[in-house]
């Protein structure tokens, strides 16, 4: 093999490596910028205090949008622990009472026997 073949071979290898490195860096930078953009949007949503929209099931199975009740997500981190615990227990009992009321209404609509604990007799 002539001596100039080795020069061409190494030049091609160096150019190919440089192109691969440039493409890899370009891909990595674009991915990092996309990740930072998504993180910025997420943090902007958290910091704005916007309440999430939840879907509430209705009798026909379709959901109707409503605003979430209660404190904004993440506010418990900076809140008073006793107040946060009271709010948690209050919400838990409200959800339990709502489930009980739905269960009683559903059984009444189907003309099924009611549980004495659901009716508050026990």
What would you call the quaternary organization? single chain
Task: Calculate Rg over CA atoms.
Answer: 31 Å
Portion in strands: 5-15%
| Main beta sheet strand tally, sense and closure | 2 strands, antiparallel
Q: State the end-to-end CA separation.
A: 99 Å
Helicity, in percent? 55-70%
The tally of strands reads 2
The number of helical runs is: 2
Low-confidence stretches: none
Bulk shape: elongated
> What's the SSE pattern?
HEEH
Mean pLDDT: 82
Strand order of the largest sheet: 1-2
Helix-strand makeup class: mainly alpha
Give the secondary structure arrangement, pairings included:
Elements: H1 3-47, E1 53-57, E2 63-67, H2 81-109
Antiparallel strand pairs: 1-2
Write a brief structural summary.
The protein is mainly alpha-helical and 122 residues long. It is 61% helix and 8% strand. Strands 1-2 form a two-stranded antiparallel ribbon.
Model description:
The protein has 122 residues and is mainly alpha-helical. It is built from two helices and two strands, in the order H-E-E-H. The protein has helices at 3-47, 81-109; strands at residues 53-57, 63-67. Strand 1 and strand 2 form a beta hairpin. The longest helix is centred in the N-terminal third of the chain and has 45 residues, at 3-47.
What characteristics describe this protein?
122 residues, mainly alpha, two-stranded antiparallel ribbon, 2 helices, 2 strands, 61% helix, 8% strand
């Amino acid at each position: 093999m002539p001596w100039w073949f080795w020069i061409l071979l190494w030049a091609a290898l160096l150019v190919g490596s440089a192109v691969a490195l440039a493409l890899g860096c370009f891909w990595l930078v674009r991915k990092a910028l996309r990740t930072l953009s998504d993180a910025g949007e997420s943090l902007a949503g958290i910091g704005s205090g916007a309440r999430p929209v939840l879907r509430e099931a209705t009798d026909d199975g379709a959901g109707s949008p409503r605003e979430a009740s209660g404190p904004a997500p993440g506010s418990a981190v900076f809140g008073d622990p006793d107040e946060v615990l009271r709010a948690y227990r209050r919400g838990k009992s409200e959800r339990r009472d709502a489930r009980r009321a739905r269960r009683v209404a559903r059984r009444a609509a189907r003309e099924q026997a009611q549980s004495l604990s659901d009716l508050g007799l026990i």
